[in-house]
Design brief:
Length: 322
């Protein structure tokens, strides 16, 4: 799961103690390995031309929805190269004009997945819950920034006030000390400074409490994210065998390619399946990292909140240009 903003709180307030940012950060799984590496000499341009063939109505997916899923899958690859020229062919002769045809063939694999679908619904609603927590967290974090700014300004004013007070006391001391009349003024000023100092102390205590509660929220969020990831892992342990990329197949007859989709559980997964098969159509083979789109089975690619290319995917597609 990707939560890049979590637990950066400790740096904000030097007064907040007991922060274990490193622990927290270890739980926050980023996809830092997906940063684009630099492209070799010359712009990297690839082409993909496709048509959408027959879609079995039992998939309950429209041609437009398929097209959208294909475009989303293509966008993943497009992000890793300088240019991906996509031609979409429509109409009766589309199959002859396009280099690739995408078909949806229904078989029993699609039929036997009710339990899997229920499980995925649970995972999805857990994901919604996490999104909600994350939104609340971000709102509070913004509130914290505002309050931290206020506190910083107040502290600044307080320090200036203390400095003025001290230099006044010093100057009176140097010019012979406090006389009867100045003692009253001294008391007055001291009280004013103390009152300001007290306000600062209260504000800092409030802020510490706020940071503590925000950190508890972050912990909860991290726990929920870990739980969500466990559910996803369990899902693929239980249903993993049917989740090999034999849910779909890419065939190339020497001139034209065909991507046939047999099975998918949801749109997210369809995107991964299409991205994988399009990867083959672009000329990619399999890669060893299980989080890669081009890994031989579908599994860990579904762990993140977003479907992304791995560093291996990016290297592989960029290598096509050299
Ligand atoms: Zn494959």
């Amino acid at each position: 799961m990707l939560f890049p903003h979590l637990l950066l709180l400790c740096a904000v307030l030097s007064t907040a103690s007991g922060c274990s940012r490193d622990d927290a950060r270890n739980q926050v799984r980023g996809n830092s390995d997906t940063a684009l590496s630099s492209v070799g000499p010359g712009p990297c341009t690839l082409e993909f031309s496709y048509a959408i063939g027959t879609i079995d109505p039992r998939f309950h997916i429209s041609r437009n929805e398929v097209r959208q899923a294909v475009e989303e899958a293509l966008a993943l690859w497009a992000g890793a190269v300088d240019r991906l020229d996509v031609q979409f062919h429509e109409g009766i002769r589309a199959g002859e004009q396009a280099r690739n045809t995408i078909l949806f063939e229904y078989d029993e694999r699609q039929d036997q997945s009710d339990r899997a679908r229920r499980f995925q619904d649970q995972i999805a609603s857990k994901g919604d819950f996490i999104d909600q927590l994350h939104r609340e967290y971000e709102l509070e974090q913004r509130d914290l920034e505002r309050r931290t700014g206020e506190h910083r300004r107040l502290s600044g004013r307080l320090n200036e006030r203390i400095e003025r007070f001290n230099s006044w006391v010093e100057s009176v001391n140097q010019s012979g000390g406090f006389g009867e009349g100045q003692l009253g003024e001294y008391e007055e000023q001291l009280q004013a400074v103390e009152a300001k100092r007290e306000r600062e102390r209260e504000m800092r205590a409030d802020l510490d409490q706020f940071v503590a509660s925000l950190n508890r929220r972050a912990d909860l969020l991290n726990r929920e994210v870990a739980f969500h990831d466990d559910m996803v892992r369990q899902f693929y342990r239980e249903f993993g065998d049917e989740y090999r990329f034999n849910s779909a197949l890419y065939r190339f007859d020497g001139t034209r390619g065909t991507i046939t989709v047999y099975h998918f559980h949801n749109r997210r997964e369809l995107k991964v399946i299409l991205a994988h098969e399009i990867g083959h159509a672009l000329g990619l083979g399999h890669v060893p990292d299980s989080r890669s789109i081009m890994y031989e089975t579908i599994r860990d690619q579904m762990l993140g909140r977003e479907i992304v290319l791995s560093a291996e995917d990016i290297r592989a597609v960029q290598a096509l240009c050299r």
